[in-house]
């Protein structure tokens, strides 16, 4: 299953498959619970939305005790 989470211009992907946006939050929560390391990225020439989204998501994941790279 591929997990896609869109936060501003930032997206998060784990695994393989087609995104189901109706189930994204539950899948994201499951991915957070079942994985220890995450890479977060945004688009080329990032704007404030993209950078802010990366920082917010990384803060959330770090608060959960996860390893995060931006």
Give a topology summary.
Layout: E1 3-7, E2 10-14, H1 24-34, E3 37-39, H2 48-63, E4 67-69
Parallel strand pairs: 3-4
Antiparallel strand pairs: 1-2
Notable traits:
two-stranded antiparallel sheet; about 70 residues; globular; two-stranded parallel ribbon; 4 strands; 2 helices; single chain
Characterization of this structure:
This protein is of the alpha+beta class. The chain is built from 2 helices and 4 strands.
Helix share bin: 25-40%
Rg over alpha carbons:
12 Å
Biggest β-sheet: strands ordered side by side in the sheet:
1-2
Strand coverage percent: 15-25%
Structural class: alpha+beta
Order of helices and strands: EEHEHE
Distance between the termini: 23 Å
Largest sheet descriptor: 2 strands, antiparallel
**Quick check: average pLDDT?**
74
- Flag low-confidence runs: none
Large-scale geometry: globular
* Strands, total number: 4
Enumerate how many helices there are, as a single number.
2
Task: Give a brief description.
The protein has 70 residues and is of the alpha+beta class. It contains two helices and four strands; from the N terminus they run ββαβαβ.
């Amino acid at each position: 299953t591929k997990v896609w989470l869109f936060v501003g211009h930032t997206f998060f992907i784990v695994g393989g498959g087609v995104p189901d946006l109706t189930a994204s939050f539950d899948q994201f929560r499951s991915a957070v619970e079942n994985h220890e390391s995450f890479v977060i990225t945004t688009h080329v020439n990032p704007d404030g939305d993209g950078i802010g989204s990366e920082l917010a998501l990384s803060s959330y994941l770090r608060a959960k005790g996860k390893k995060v790279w931006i």
